[in-house]
Write a structure and sequence with these properties.
By secondary structure, the protein is of the alpha+beta class. It has 2 helices and 10 strands. The protein has a 5-stranded mixed beta sheet with strand order 2-1-9-8-5, with no helix packed on it. It has a 5-stranded antiparallel beta sheet with strand order 4-3-6-7-10. A hairpin with a 7-residue loop joins strand 6 and strand 7. Helix 1 runs antiparallel to helix 2. It is elongated, with a radius of gyration of 16 Å. The model has no long low-confidence stretch (mean pLDDT 93).
Amino acid sequence: MADTVQFELVSPERLMVDKAVAMVVIPGMEGDFGVLPGHAPAISTIRPGVIEVYERDGAAPERLFVRGGLADVRAEGLIVLAEDAVDPAQVDMADLDRELLRARDDLANADTDFDRDRAETEIAWREALKAAATGTA
């Protein structure tokens, strides 16, 4: 059995990560799950949260925030198709706070269930990003 798993993280804009790693922890819809070499094939939707990438055993993880997406675990490795992905350390907190305020205003002014659902979704992923960026997630 190999001691690494090939990990690819793809956003709509680009291939963000493509490397062999020891383990990846994914924020699945049913809870976080780790992917190690030899993991059984699986497909999972991803909730907004942090993917932790461990390049080697015992190393500190690289952290990447994903807005959501799909994880596909195969014998060849793990592919994550992310709606959006960013380095939490690169988040402009002032911009994020403005976007959160705007989303909360949209929720307060929503006239339809669709508009409320959309505003609630925007608030949820932006709050998850803020928690990741401030280290509280």
